[in-house]
Amino acid sequence: MRSAFSGIIDEIPFINVDNFQNQDQSAYFLSHFHGDHIFGLNDLQFPRKLEENRSFIYASEVTVAIVESELPNLAPYLKILQLGRNTIEIQDKYEKIYLKVTMVPAGHSLGSVMFLFEHNKTVLYTGDFRITQNSVSKYTHLHKSNGEPINLDALYIDTTFQNVPSFPRRSEVIRNIVSYVKDWLSVDGRDVVLITSACYGYEAVCNELYSATGIKTFIANRLRWQVFSKFPKEMFGITDDCSSKIHLYTKYEFGKLSPDENTLQVYFSAMIWGPDANDEHCIIRETENRIKACFATHCGRDELIYFMKYFPVKKIVSFPEPFICNDSNLTDIYKRPINSKIEVSPKRPLKRAASNSPNKVPVSKKLNTMTMKNMFDW
Ligand SMILES: [Zn+2]
Predict the structure, then answer these.
(1) Which of 128, 173, 186, 292 has its CA 20 to 30 A from that of 90?
(2) pLDDT class for 91, splitting at 50, 70, 90?
(3) Distance 186 CA to ligand 1 centre (A)
(4) How far apart are CA 228 and CA 105, in angstroms?
(5) How far is CA 361 from CA 96, 208, 226, in A?
(6) Could you tell me the distance, in angstroms and rounded to a whole number, from the CA of residue 336 to the centre of ligand 1?
(7) For 234-313, where are the alpha helices, taking DSSP H only?
(8) What integer best gives the mean pLDDT of the chain?
(9) What is the per-residue pLDDT across 301-332, written as a single tens digit (0 to 9) for each?
(10) Which domains does the chain have, with CATH numbers?
């Protein structure tokens, strides 16, 4: 595994985001706790460097809880940011700096966030994210008071699945899974295992299954249970009762078990799906007791391009790979060439296709992004 992001925000040189290998920064930000976003975080010298530099790591409440449980020696150096606007005081080498940071849900996993930094320049760092086209306009904090999208000096954006044209909506995939699970459990003596590719990112599936079946999902991993159980309102579909008929494991954890034919195995993955995946075709029944579900926690290319085009932006930096603009695949959504980093003249405003113009949505009608219930965007 390699780091998804260098950590460097050119416009704000005294911070690092999602990369902790440079240990002399004045402040660090963590968008979510996934292996490719935490390089350097578990370095044994890091707590000492944080102490020396009087630096802190800023993250959402959920991410702080995860780091506290995975890397307890970092606990004194973690600071929770609230969703919405924050102003933080950073002790740089020679001066105190006040940095405005607005945090909004990224729709990737429980507690995952995007950071909007304002310090001479306005910079949005998405972290890993999935936001559907219908939802962008509902993010109050990414709009001006008149309802127009904010102007960005720089957009740092996750392009992990830029080569997949489109993904089915997660709400639709779960609706399908619920139907398989209910059907399977209608016969006595059967159970279900949910098998995920990452440790975090599938939490809402447990809630939806509970709402549909009345069965809470057993979280086999003790550390994950401890984190989830701190957020009972957001994670109401889980239990530590191993007699539950639905269990959740990562692929690695499940590999050590020996399930029998009474167990329905539900595999979640976005990797195995090509251009065929859509709302209707989002489940493959591989065998009688094994299904695969297309469950993407990153944007497909259509959502990605919509998001990039939505904001008036001067510079785009993509990660983990440079964004490849291939017009033949882009149809009419996006015509402006984008490389990994581009500069756009501010005098020449970007032209939007009529169908993609940001609607002026009155602020009062926008989604309230201040609650953790909205951390998932379907
Ligand atoms: Zn991630």
Answers:
(1) 128
(2) confident
(3) 35
(4) 17
(5) 38, 29, 40
(6) 27
(7) 251-254, 301-310
(8) 85
(9) 999 999 999 999 999 999 998 888 765 444 44
(10) 15-164+300-375 (3.60.15.10), 170-294 (3.40.50.12650)
